[in-house]
Amino acid sequence: MKNTAAPQTLTAPQINDTESYRAANLLIKQFGENAPDHAKQWITEMKLDGDDEGAAFWIRVLKALDLFLSNTTPPNVVRH
């Protein structure tokens, strides 16, 4: 019997902000204020490899690092 089912396409898992924040937190724990430099290196490597989704993830991590390492509180954020 011939398989007539449509072929399945694989899609990358969705990465949410929580995962970006976790990665940013780990980078800060490991590299401190130098964490953004490491994220920028990953962005460059991903772009050179043609991995746009990987680069997009590290860009989100870099934005989280900027937020976590800044001394200002964004609007609508309450620190506890």
Defining key terms:
3 helices; 80 residues; 0% strand; mainly alpha; single chain
What features would you describe in this structure?
This protein is mostly helical and 80 residues long. Helices cover 59% and strands 0% of the residues. The chain contains three helices and no strands. The protein has helices at residues 17-31, 35-48, 52-69. The chain is globular and about 40 Å long.
Low-confidence stretches: none
Task: Determine the number of helices (DSSP H or I, runs of at least 4 residues).
Answer: 3
| Major sheet description | none
Q: What is the average per-residue confidence, as pLDDT, rounded to a whole number?
A: 84
Radius of gyration: 18 Å
By secondary-structure content and strand pairing, the structural class works out as mainly alpha
Distance between the termini: 63 Å
Helical fraction = 55-70%
